[in-house]
Input
Amino acid sequence: MADARGTWDSLREWIVEHKLRAVGSLWLSGIVGSIAYNWSQPNMKTSVKIIHARLHAQALTLAALAGAAVVEYYDHQTGKKADRYAKFLKFDEHQEKDRS
Output
């Protein structure tokens, strides 16, 4: 059970660090899956199949963006985002410049 928890946390951390890549990958997989499904429907024109695939992928992308917003909100509320960026900042240098 601890391994599943670690895997979930590592997946969430990757998504937090690579939000746009995750949304883009989801969009691409959504459009490919939708085209594959629509191509199995024999009574549709090709243009309708492509339009449906785009609409399905767009809905999936909006859901992914909403999920990324929820993750961002969660990180903001828990303070994890501030802790993550604090390691890149050197507070002593900034404080000395402000005093001058």
